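Sample intake — IRG-type G domain-containing protein
Collected from: Panagrolaimus sp. PS1159
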Amino acid sequence: MEAPQDYYPEISQADADKFKNIFNERGLEGLQQLYRMKMNEWKDIPLNIGITGESGSGKSAFINAMRNLSDDDQGAAKVDVKETTTEPKKYLHPKNEKLVFWDLPGVGTLTFQKDKYLDKIDFKDYDFFLILTCTRFTENDIWLAEEIHKKKKRFFFVRTKFHSDIENEKNGRRNPRSEKVLRESIKANIKENLKGKDLYDEKNIFIIDNYKREMYDFGNLINRIIEDSPAIKQEVLIMSLTLWNADMIKKKAATMRKYMVLGCLMSGAVGAIPLPGISIAFDTIIIAGQANIYYNHFGLDDESLIRLAQTTSRDPDAILGVVRNRVSTFLTSQGLATFIRGAPRILAALAAEEGSRFIPIIGSIIAFPASFASTYYLLNIILNEMEKTALEVVKRVFGYTDVIFVIHGIGQAMNEDIEATVKKVRGTIEKELTDTTIRPLILPIQWRTTADVSDEKIKELSNNQSPRIQQRRDHFNDIFYYLEPADAPSSRQIKLKENLIYHLNQAYSEFMTENSDFKGKFSLLAHSLGSVITYDVLKTRNLKFPVENFFAIGSPLGFWLALRGKNTPEILETTDNYKYFFNVNFSDDIVAHKIEPLFKETFQRWDESFECAVPTQIVNQQLSLDSWNIDFELPSTEGLLHKIPYYPEIVGVLNHSLYWESKDLMNFIIQVLHKGSRNATVNDALRNDFNLLIRKKNERLLSEIEDTRKKIKFNSETVKVKSEEVKMAENEAKKLICANFGNDSVIDLVASQDPLNVEYLRLQEALAALKLRNEERRRIEADAAKALNWLQRVTVEVNAFENQVAQDKKLLEKLIQEQDAFKNEVQTFCADWHMPHTLEP
């Protein structure tokens, strides 16, 4: 509970006399009426907001959102895609009838042409204008903006239905653009849309969704409307509008604190009236009334909370339970009485006040501040508790999605600056964060303070004992302490790791104590030597929480792994402890080292053509986490540092400390956090790539074995077929040769006979008959020659196929041996890398 401040705002004697006169004339009821009138003065200030745009641009839904109404609530603006606005129509805010939202007809409609538009809508009556579109701003929209600008009134361009754009992007693209890229694309289109006009100002352009008020630019739009309104009207907007974010809640608290002081001043004035009990009675009215105001304006009433639960798909009972457990005491007379009885300091103040009631003159001087103090004290407690409760509701409904533990680099000095470092990280992320679905909490880990690894003997070796030199030496000695052999870690290494484990687990426990329902993810952002120790800590499996992302920045981890002789790093050994690993460095950071080249030898075991890619460039790149890439490179800082003397020599050292201010790094982290629904972890992707290479080689071997077996089978069958063909060729040749056997003998016999012999004549006739068959004989001889050639050819083919079968059998035996050896190699590899066996038995 917060005590009242030593100084309180003053109240004039005239005001005090006025309170006394009212009490004398109308009693306590008169004071109560005056109090209510004072508390509601802000509701008497008119504020008119003109909302225009083409049909279907979302005007009605926007008006409902600004009034915290659903489209089907009583009094809600009618939502329709066709033009329903034929004349300016006003919609009053449920909490303040003087806050009016005007649904204006679009420019250029049948009854609202440009030349008479401003007169017809009574232009002068509006405080400012909102020009809405769900696509592009039309010529009529731009014309109206120019007219508003000429007449010195404020206007804002509002691009609606952004959530639908995101969903369409996801459903319509194979590689959907991120929310940030889509926003930038829309703003670029608007800039092009307004080209040549003196209207474009990025600060006046807001991208919203009427049904996602706590996302995108809706909150920024309301804040801008408040900031650009006259001071007297800012209060109207703050007290009237409902927006569930910390900034609006704090604005409401600051405004209500002013009215709290007003109530306390009136309590003080009444406390000076010398009548027993009057102060307590009036204070009870003030306290109960103020508590009810806080309750309703923070949106802690049941209706507002149930509506919030419905629009955010949360459990209404859980949200209502949070509020009732914390503030229900302040909402009933009995609860307030119980609360006061439990506040001894307040009772003492009230008792002193009543006891001083009848001390003339001096008593009034005593009673006034006593009454003010007691009322202020109690209201301050109630207001603070209501504010904290509203913030708790925001945290429960729109709570942290991620926790990032920041782990500094070398040396005690870095540890002492960690708070400033975290402040830089928070500031840079807040500036770059446009995705309202991501709400990271950045927490420092001060691991080096309590880890005393110094050695007095080493200190005695220093040749300069000045504190500054010694501090810098201690700063870098951590590196040498941690360079001791990893296979036989020293007590210093163990102490540094144990200290980091202790502080990480302690920070986790403290966070979960305050956020027991946290369902988000934890990431580690470790710099320099801190990333090496963090890596070793993750291997110990001693953390109490799972790590989603491990960001190593400016990291010498690759150097450490190579120094330890790890050509194949043990990254996969820590899969159970973290999912995603990102080694992010400036290209000209002399401390940072790559890691991916250490995988080259492993990859080339199964893919000789594999070459290690250059680090993935971060700037202006859509992040893809579907591959195993680990090294990421930030743009060079040459533009920032090239003016420094001896630039090449010093830039590498300076870059090592510039990560915390890097917008590119913070945008990269935001992209990683945004991609929460990833198909595989980086380690899984790395495993998948290894498995893919293994499977490819295995499939190649199996394919070669299968092809060889098929080839052997085919050639063996061919040998059989060709052997049959050889037999056929032999038979054909023999038949043809036999068909011609004896003909030559007859001819020779005729030639040897006496021509005058009768037998000779018969033989000569036979010879003539044989000559008639000469052509047929020649054909048969030719066929016989072909048959012999056929026989010779198929015989050669059979021999060749038989030789090929013999060779293929030897190849098959070799491939089977290679396959068996490969299986053994994979089995050993998978065991070493803690991977499941990926090959079929």
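Post-analysis note: The mean pLDDT is 72.
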